[in-house]
């Protein structure tokens, strides 16, 4: 995932932080309010894979309240209580975000959809480097 994915996650976290308290807390609350929809679809599928999904999502369960707390105690420029001075607050958000990014990446799992996507991409790469037309490539297989 190189540099772009963690950088993008840090940027998203900073944007959430810059939304200012109490809006940050309200945004996070909206995400929590959507949980019944998630549980509805889990119930429809008989909670298949629920334990695996929950294990992979614990980072998010900790990240969202953590961001709300950082926003609450952050600098006054962003609506916080001012316990974290301006400048340092953003540094804390950056470090916090990187910790949670890597936690999330390392607790994720490969799904059947990812395996299917990789198979399709491998076939596309094979075709692209074969130098054959589509019909020739299909008949050679």
From TrEMBL:
Record-annotated membrane-spanning stretches: 23-41, 56-74, 86-104
Domain of life: Bacteria
InterPro entries the record matches: AA_Transporter_AGT
Organism whose genome encodes this protein: Paraburkholderia piptadeniae
Protein name: Amino acid-proton symporter YbeC
Keyword Transmembrane recorded: yes
Keyword annotations: Membrane, Transmembrane, Transmembrane helix
Organism phylogeny: Bacteria, Pseudomonadati, Pseudomonadota, Betaproteobacteria, Burkholderiales
